[in-house]
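S., here's the first fold you wanted:
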Amino acid sequence: MEELETPRVAPRTASRRGWDFALLVLAVALLGGLGIQSLAGTLYSWWATRTVESWATSPAFAFYIQVMNAIAAPMVIALAIVMGLCIPKRLFSRGALAAASGIMVLFGLGSWAATGSPTTGLAVYLLGAAGVQVSVVVMTIAGASSLRFLAEGRVAKVGSALLHLGFLVFGYVVVALQKDAWMLPVFWVGFVLAIGGSALTFYAGGVTRALSGGR
């Protein structure tokens, strides 16, 4: 009796997919951690406003800000690094990826040194990654064959690219727009990108059929 052969995945392809999946899971975990912290901090601040006299000008508020920043800073830095590795890999090989990521790190460190603000350095780093991701979105829509994705099919790839861009926008909001009037508008842009990208990724088959008239 003949045994059915199961298709084997090339070691390099399997390694790349494992790398992609690990970066995706780590990015989602970090964003989830920041989201949980933001929710918990908002609830605590809401409670403190009603129970602590002159909360916004009290020493307790200053300590609260220090604690929140100390918790968020490692996650934000890790998220910036993960995004810096996750986005250029769509365009570059592993060796070129290291060079591209190194250039973005240098830009971030240079901005930090020039301004004396680590926040500015992280913001510049994330903006660089976002610029690369916008290029990925455009190239994906145009059907460039050189891009590498876990997903198959153009609709799923566009969804993946938009989802990653949404993550970058969220990261930029956390890093640079906490006290800015643009915080909410930019947050909603990131939200729409992330939700829209997720929908295109998970329902790529239905979207493709709808675009092709049900064929």
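And the second, which I think is the more interesting of the pair:
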Amino acid sequence: MTTVATLIAGLESRGILLSLAGEEIRYRSPKDALTGADREALRANRAAMLDYLKTRSAARALKTAGAIQGPLTPSVAQEMWWRFAGGAEEGKPVALNIPMVGRFAHGAAAVTAAIHQVIARYDALRTRFESDCEMLAAFLNPADAFEVEQEQASADAAAQGAQQFCSRLNAIEGQWLTRAKVFALPGGESLAAISAAHMIADAGTRNILLEEIHDILDHGAPKVAPSALYNDYSLAERACLAGPQGDQLITHWRDWYRRQPMMKAPSTGAPLLWGNGVRVVRNFTMPGRVRDKVGAIADAMKVTPFLVYLTIFSIALARWAGMERFPLRVLGDKRTSLDLANTVGLMFCADAVEISVPSASDFESVLRGILAEYDASLAMRIPSLHFWAPHAVRPGIEPRDHENKIPAVFNYYSAGTAREKAQARAAPDSGAALPWPPAITSTTQTWPRRSSPLFLHVMDMGHDVQMSLHFFQDVVGPADQDSFTATLFQVFAQTVPA
């Protein structure tokens, strides 16, 4: 099945560029590039292509909205996160924090002063929240009220202490959503632990802060120019979403969602709907030697490792469920321009992607189709998080229990700062003897928040890849968990040379 996204991607790959003039579709192309078959395809898909181009234009306006100065206001993402993670069950089964732990060749006093400097630099880290029924308000804590805890410890004890410190709940409606502690180590070094609630931070925030602390200690000030402040960015985003561009985006994605098929568990036929309950997590490690082979495949196809992993996951889902077409949720980052590259705040998002895995297609053909659909999703991005797009982007316009039938979520993340990645590459490969297929360790948790039926986390650590499969056991039972895990490793074996 050829979608509008793949049709437009094919035209644009040949230099045929489409644009809008009111309700008319126009194109620019090299001489004689547009064939008779192309013209027929354009006529046959005119309505869908018109909607696509309007939505892409609306998304472009959202991306270029700039920044607006104004009163401190919760972002639309924070409103959604509050509804998702807050309330009486907050912190169960784990606190949803962003841990930021770094070791520094400087004394505790200097590291503490650097932490105070970055906390003062970013209002996003000093924001607190209060709610009144369905309304959420934001307030700013004074920078001079931020306290950094202190402790002397050995390196091992400090590492353990930092982990425990970062696992404590930073309540969304608490006084401080950011906390910090500095461990003074023997030899004049220090270990810093900063813990921020996910409500105000993400993995990108972690990298920005740790690099800035290093720069302050080594050079006296951050080396990079500051990006847009989170509140200024969020106000511009909110204004755009409240206007006609937001209406276009929401309408497009609502219609997209209604067209998606329902995936069902193979052995029971249970619909793969999101819900709260028992979640099984299967953790495993991909050794560096296998990671490098994935990288080699990506290089040969001139794509990123992200896309190779996403394609493997998608093929496994298709085989497991017996479906050639289905929706998928892919986590991403809204720092897509220079003026947002170092914005500190909750900038992570999720994109809905239509996946096609024709049974007769080879791996690269599937990958190219997924790439076209993913690029189209980014071009029409609506900022969302865990729930289906309109509910997430405008909390309150749908019932809280509105179903989410997007069956699976994919999250790939290249972990660490540039400094940390270089250190990881220089270190000896401690996992050279690890088996592949891997040994798996499983844990069971009870989640009070709605979660997806199937979730694959892929965290590239530079030397190896930490991976985990999450199953919502109420709809994906033990037999289906086993069969999907086996199918995933089967696709890996067929794709990545042993």
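Why I say that: Residues 59 and 89 are 35 Å apart (CA to CA). The longest helix spans residues 46-63.

Talk tomorrow,
H.
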